[in-house]
């Protein structure tokens, strides 16, 4: 008989349904073993990462015994690495994490060691350290607390209900001190992720049929949850090769290698836009000097814009005010054996263009870029200034279609405002953040991480068909 005011004991059987909400595990069968001192959780692909003063560990778990097709990725702070002797007398070192255990309507923090329990019927073992003084275990009973079920792993809610987890993210960039790269590191770490900047040119590849691998400074790179490419124009081809290796390993990349290659090749980019019926200024290209006059006629009357195919940030772009000037510029480029195209000049744009930043198929931010006095190029690197702008519905639609044409998760779409509607000038697969964040007041890096977190969450498992169904 309890004394007045004495708390009723919390009853458990020798087996119970439990949840670990902080790890995204809503239902596990656990064995309650008062003979064991520590608690253990099934885990495989266990990998430490993060700074030495705040180490983390990530791992995967098959929550349903016998169902290796259902995998939940998890991560947590590693609070210790402990020597543990199993029931059969074997000793091993295990990572220790702290997480919240839920049984019935009660939750409390517990320490759990990580070990592969794939051959065992119970994915979790609850030892006596995890049991409070008011917990009473009735070894003759099973499932004293409410029953759960594995069906939850097949629900659509599983994807949206997954808790935030620490991600390991690589930023491919040769400019670690650049504003955009620094913002990616700062914002990622503020959200609890581990962000590593890798110099694109210092990555190298081991290409074999067994398993794709990327190496760096003499070591094989670990498995990343996501890769954000900030690949410079001068190393586009090599950077795309590195990305293909990550893609082959199943890593989520914000921008795919083929999309980057297509957007960087100005001729191919215009062909892709044309194939997807995205409006753009009239553009023409020819190889033979005999076709110079016809080339100019295709585009229209002067003034005309002549662009090197490998131009970037406004460099290699010339405005020819007259037909004769256009012929001279074309002859000069041909003399240099440089590839170029000729494009309609949209006079009514007045030295302005609009950049729409597209992230994950949505407009994240926008700005208007205004050219410096006496300059027709509005690029910020050419002295242009950035101002806030509100996009029209048509401009939003064109920008989204342009990014989608290259399958880019992050794109800066440059638009000209012409008399007959918006025209796409360029699709940038590595847009800078500084100008658009300053002009729009939007936290672009945060929006990008929200998209990455959404994309790398585990999808709900599909129900396995019964034999003969």
Automatic annotation (TrEMBL):
Residues 270-453 form the ATP-grasp domain. Gene3D superfamilies: 3.40.50.20, Acid Proteases, ATP-grasp fold, A domain, ATP-grasp fold, B domain. Pfam families: RimK (PF08443), Rimk_N (PF18030), Zn_protease (PF05618). One of its GO terms (cellular component) is ribosome. Keywords: ATP-binding, Ligase, Magnesium, Manganese, Metal-binding, Nucleotide-binding, Protein biosynthesis, Ribonucleoprotein, Ribosomal protein. It comes from the Bacteria. One of its GO terms (molecular function) is metal ion binding. PROSITE patterns: ATP_GRASP (PS50975). GO terms for biological process: SOS response; translation. This is Probable alpha-L-glutamate ligase. It comes from Frigidibacter albus.
């Amino acid at each position: 008989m309890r004394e007045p005011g004495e708390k009723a004991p919390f009853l458990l059987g020798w087996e119970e349904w439990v949840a670990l909400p902080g790890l995204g595990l809503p239902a596990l069968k656990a064995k309650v073993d008062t003979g064991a001192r520590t608690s253990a959780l099934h885990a495989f692909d266990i990998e430490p990462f993060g700074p030495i003063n705040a180490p983390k560990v990530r791992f995967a778990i098959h929550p349903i015994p016998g169902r290796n097709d259902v995998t939940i990725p998890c991560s947590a702070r590693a609070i210790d690495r402990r020597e543990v002797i199993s029931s059969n007398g074997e000793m091993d070192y295990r990572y220790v994490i702290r997480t919240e255990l839920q049984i019935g309507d009660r939750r409390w923090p517990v320490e759990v060691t990580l070990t592969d329990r794939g051959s065992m019927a119970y994915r979790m073992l609850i030892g006596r350290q995890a049991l409070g003084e008011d917990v009473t275990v009735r070894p003759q009973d099973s499932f004293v607390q409410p029953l759960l079920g594995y069906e939850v792993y097949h629900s659509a809610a599983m994807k949206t209900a997954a808790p935030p987890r620490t991600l390991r993210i690589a930023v491919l960039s040769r400019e670690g001190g650049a504003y955009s790269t620094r913002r990616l590191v700062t914002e990622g770490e503020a959200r609890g992720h581990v962000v590593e900047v890798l110099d694109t040119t210092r990555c190298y590849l081991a290409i074999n049929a067994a398993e794709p691998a990327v190496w760096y400074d003499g070591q094989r790179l670990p498995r990343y949850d996501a890769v954000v490419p900030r690949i410079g124009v001068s190393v586009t081809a090599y950077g795309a090769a590195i990305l293909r290796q990550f893609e082959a390993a199943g890593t989520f990349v914000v921008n795919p290698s083929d999309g980057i290659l297509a957007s960087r090749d100005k001729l191919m980019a215009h062909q892709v836009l044309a194939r997807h019926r995205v409006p753009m200024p009239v553009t023409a290209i020819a190889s033979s000097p005999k076709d110079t006059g016809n080339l100019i006629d295709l585009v229209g009357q002067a003034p005309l814009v002549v662009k090197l195919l490998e131009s970037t940030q406004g460099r290699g772009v010339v405005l020819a005010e007259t037909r004769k000037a256009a012929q001279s510029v074309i002859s000069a480029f041909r003399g240099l054996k440089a590839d170029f195209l000729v494009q309609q000049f949209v006079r009514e744009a007045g030295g302005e263009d609009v950049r729409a930043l597209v992230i994950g198929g949505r407009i994240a931010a926008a700005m208007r870029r205004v050219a410096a006095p006496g300059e027709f190029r509005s690029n910020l690197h050419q002295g242009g200034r950035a101002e806030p702008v509100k996009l029209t519905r048509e401009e939003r639609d064109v920008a989204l279609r342009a990014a989608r044409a290259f399958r880019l998760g992050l794109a800066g779409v440059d638009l000209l405002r012409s008399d007959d509607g918006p025209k796409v000038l360029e699709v940038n697969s590595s847009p800078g953040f500084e100008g658009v964040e300053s002009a729009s007041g939007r936290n672009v890096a945060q929006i990008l991480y929200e998209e990455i977190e959404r994309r790398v969450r585990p999808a709900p498992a599909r129900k396995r068909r019964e034999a003969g169904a």
